[in-house]
Amino acid sequence: MNNLGQFLRTYSLQHNARIAYEIKRGFRTEKFSFADVHSLALKTATLLKSYGLKKGDTVVIWAPNMPEYPILYFACWILGIIVVPIDIRTTEETRQLFIATAGCKFGFKSKIIAGSFPPPVAHTCYLEDLIELVQPLPELEEAPEVAPDDLAEIAFTSGTTGTPKGVQLTHRNFLANVSALCQTFPFKQKYRTLSLLPLSHAFEQVVDLLAVFQFGSAVTYLERINPATIISTLRKHRITTAFVVPQFLQLLMTGIEREIEKSGAQRIWSMLQSIASLLPIRLRRCIFYPFRQRLGKHFQFFGCGSAPLNSKLAQKWENTGIVIYEGYGATETTAVLTINTPFAKRQGSVGKALPGTHIQINPTTHEIIARGPNVSAGYFQDMPKTQQAFTEGWYRTGDIGSFDAEGYLYITGREALRIVLPGGEKVYPEDIENQLNAHPLVLESCVVGVQREQGERVHAAIITRYPQELDEIVRQVNQKLSSHEQILEWSLWRHDDFPRTPILKIDRRKVANAIEGRKETLAAVQISEDDKLRSLIAQSKKIPVSRIKETDVLTTDLALDSLQRVELLSLIEQDLGVTVAETEITEHTTVSQLRELIENAEVVPEGPPFHALNYTPLLVRTRVLLQTMLIFPLHSLFVPLEISGKENLVNLELPAIFYFNHMGIMDAVCVLRALPLSIRRKLVIAATQDLWQEWRQFFVEFWGGGFPFDTRHNIKASFELMGEFLDNGFSILIAPEGGISKDGTLQPFKSGIGFIATHMHAPVVPIKIDPSYREIFPPMDAALLENIPKKRKRIWVKIGEPMIFSKQSSLELAMQKIRQAMIEL
Asked: What angle do CA 633, 635, 641 make, to 5 degrees?
């Protein structure tokens, strides 16, 4: 295998129809098989070629993770185009340096990122539009010859001003690293991985893009990453593993411990944690089962790298039965140099070297140096930096480390972070942080060197819930440190976390600046919630942020209708990680009051009540059989049908959304009888939640396959439930009038049908019932009597042509078109 294009072809053909990528956008989950990825990559290559791009050209990518990202990667690699991925949090000044240095003429960016590409980029496409752009194009038939040592990527690793440092990674580098990793770590096809690290970084590319692709595992991407979305996805998508940086582990553990504290189970948690390390892994998983439910019962392990892992945090996870496999590497080594595995694991170490990788410790400086086919040849157009970091094929990592007798590597410090004391002694912050973070009262710490009149001094910034114990914490830790490592200054860090770099390492420069009293504090470098909230409102309303004021009332001043509020609440949940109940937003709620609701939001509101058992395969088969053998014959005694338009269902792509005019009691049975068995066996009915308060609930839910659709109080949860049914292959039957017609004429449609048509990504099919149906079941005051047929009458049912709507379609126009289609039947 000579290049990554051949890699794509080999493994996409091998895994073919298996799901490679999935992502939930809005209320639906989009899925891409391995065959889809291969086909779309070839079509994307055709698109790139049509713009005149050729082997050796550079393409910049600036977007969050999504399935289109790896598809674009593969398309570029097929053509021998060099990708230049840029982290979404990279500053404008740095981004301009990267693009100018690499000479990118073509760029892909995300719609959600403000800003544009500077010259020399001459043409820009939105990455979210990639599938729509390439779908009608033919697959590339002839690709250029791409050699193993051709560049695949320029990975910029420096976010500072001045000359950027672009690591040159070849096809050989990637293939060698992935091959060695797959030989060492036992990936399994059945794994389901959640992608959390940026695809702009080599670690994510090697593990979640290439290694799991080789084994045929499914990768789930998130439209937006926040704790609430992560937790929900782990459960709903049955995720088994995720490759993360330590900060993600800390965020998730903090969330779990907060819930435990609120529930009053803290004593039990502490007791179990204290004894768990003495127990076998299977028993740990059993006794911590209730706590692990937050991550879902399928989750097994985390892979961790890119930053030092707090041993105390790692032990907490291991105690619950969720294993942590820590590894080590750098962009210059194509991500992975060493790794712990199920067969060779030692906590506190970063594992053993991968096959074919040679690692040594400089006997004088104790610096880790590495050589192998996965090691880069140097930095793009920067010989001075290349000569400084690379010598005769060996890469100087800048990390200080040591091997134990069995070959496990331990990282003890970073040369670039060392503190030089006035007496010339060298202190490595990580050594001190390891001792601080091991203290039971310390959540996280950051040690930096601060300049004082007498020279550089060791200063520890500490996050703890017990600030009154800070002096005692430092005193106890100092007793474990050598004389030159003593913490002479310390301070309480009053935020929940330290500022982070794009790959979630602690940004020590910002910590030091805050400690030394410079203007650039944490508050100054973070995006305020105020700006974020206004941005989300502007996105929902499609107006400039500048037009939104604190005192604006959502319903009147901003004219947010019910569906726009649903979209806003979804964005708040995805971006800010909290859930605000729809019922809390009234006609008088202002922007300022919404912010207060967000600050106090804790409990996720319950969705519409329904019994999931009714939609299992066994119950579905039973229901369809009873309908065919009992319900339909009884109904046909009084309602003989003349059905037309079945030809419109022949090539219909399922699942679909069927809608009908609501003419009377049990009129949905007419629709069910008109539809073929192939559709009915996976069909559910969206019924008003009022029925769930009546005796008819059992009939609607069990006999009809109905589910509650709450259009007044919890419409967002109803849309979520509808999306889940569609994702699971169930078509939807719905009456958009919202109630039975009183006079037989078609009533105005609810605007929700326009939202469903444009946001559910499914064909919409009209089915019209003869208005004279109401003569058989005329409206009556007595609820029980109106369920008894009053006469026998032959009626007609007409099935219309399917309609497709894009998310960009106007809700009002979609609703009008849907209603007009019903009128014309």
From this structure: 90
Buried b (16+ CB within 10 A) or exposed e, 418-436: ebebeeeeebbbbebbbbb
pLDDT tens sequence across 551-568: 888 888 888 876 677 778
Encoded tokens for 255: 């969330």
Helical (H) or strand (E) element with 8: helix 4-15
Torsion on CA atoms 359, 360, 365, 366, rounded to nearest 10: 80
Q: What is the three-class DSSP state of 193?
A: strand
- CB neighbourhood size of 808 (10 A): 6
Question: Same domain, yes or no, for 512 and 401?
Answer: no
Please say whether the beta carbons of 317 and 374 come within 8 A.
Answer: no
Same domain, 703 and 762: yes
Q: Cβ atoms within 10 A of the Cβ of 772, count? A: 13
Q: Residue 532 and residue 286: Cα distance in Å, rounded? A: 41
The DSSP secondary structure of 783-802, one letter per residue, reads: TTGGGS------EEEEE---
3-class SS letters over 135-146: CCCCCCCCCCCC
Read out DSSP for 716-776? HHHHHHHHHHHHTT-EEEE-TTSS--SSSSPPPPPTHHHHHHHHS-S-EEEEEE-GGGGGT
Q: What are the structure tokens assigned to 116, written together?
A: 């544009």
pLDDT tens profile 470-508: 999 999 999 988 777 889 899 999 887 888 876 677 888
Tell me, yes or no, whether 788 and 662 share the same domain: yes
- My answer on whether 349 and 405 are in the same domain is yes
* Contact predicate 471/479, CB 8 Å: no
Nearest alpha-carbon partner for 755 in 115, 51, 27: 27
Q: Residues 605-644: pLDDT tens digits? A: 445 555 677 788 888 888 889 889 998 999 999 999 999 9
pTM: 0.80
Structural tokens at position 648: 């419109």
Q: Which domain holds residue 807?
A: 612-824
In 237-344 the beta strands, taken as DSSP E runs, fall at 241-244, 301-304, 323-328, 338-339
CA separation (Å) from 622 to 630, 694, 703, 704? Answer: 12, 23, 9, 11
Asked if residue 717 and residue 646 are part of one domain, the reply reads yes
* Residue tagged 């045929």 (tokens): 216
Give the SS3 label for residue 297.
coil
